[in-house]
Amino acid sequence: MLKEERQQFILKRLSEEERVTSLELSKELNVSDDTIRRDLKVLADEGLIQKVHGGAIPKPSAPISYLERLNFEEHKKTALAKKLLPIINPGMVLLIDGGTTNLIAVKQFPTNISLTVATNSIPVAAELSAYPNIDIIMLGGNVLKSSQATVGLEAVQALDMVYADLCLMGTCSFHSEIGLTSTNKDESLLKSKMVKSSKKVLLMATNDKLETASNFRVCDTDQIDYLIHEDDASQEILENFKSRGIEIIN
């Protein structure tokens, strides 16, 4: 089998499964483990997969503009957001990360609810400014235009005064072994600080975000407390997260 054929085989396997191992691939393709490692390196260098110890996992698709992400599969994000509502209680202090699912979530909040919200998301702050009983703390810093959110030292330092009841964390990639990761270094640093500045951390994730990994680590899997998922999410994948101590919210 030619090198290009092997690599296409690997990509096909990853489109069907959440992980491949070098050992399995070398047996299936009847080539050495070193050959498979070289194939995986080539695919990883081209940005097509994410290498992990002993094999590879899928890499999330390239980010698109904020508006495109907001409109993409909006019905799925709305369904996730509705599952969040029973968890939000009046009087809570929330830390809300950027991300289109979080914006859709706050649109579901009752208009008269009393909350304190600290956020780095410009659209979330703008949306909540119409809520008379929500106090908003806007985290300053540099604006990451692709996320419509602030990042950088000022935003990180602003979190020194916050210890939220619950953090609604934006989800780029969440893997049961690798943890929560992001595509942007500055964004990952702020997300990591958000985790440390909250009693509990919650993720809302569509199926395409689960068992994938990006390049910059946010936190370990067991630092996430709650996961809200789609109704048709793989039970095997959900069990992977449940075994790490995460409460799965149906």
A few lines on this structure:
The protein has helices at 3-16, 22-29, 33-45, 66-71, 74-84, 100-106, 122-128, 153-158, 185-196, 235-242, and strands spanning 20-21, 49-52, 55-58, 93-96, 115-119, 134-138, 142-144, 149-151, 164-169, 173-175, 179-182, 198-205, 216-219, 226-229, 247-249. By secondary structure, the protein is α/β, with parallel strands linked by helices.
Description:
With 250 residues, the chain is an alpha/beta fold. The chain is built from ten helices and 15 strands. It has helices spanning 3-16, 22-29, 33-45, 66-71, 74-84, 100-106, 122-128, 153-158, 185-196, 235-242; strands at 20-21, 49-52, 55-58, 93-96, 115-119, 134-138, 142-144, 149-151, 164-169, 173-175, 179-182, 198-205, 216-219, 226-229, 247-249. The strands form four sheets. It has a seven-stranded parallel sheet, sandwiched between helices. Helix 10 links the parallel strand 14 and strand 15. Helix 1 (3-16) crosses helix 3, helix 2 (22-29) crosses helix 3 and helix 5 (74-84) crosses helix 6.
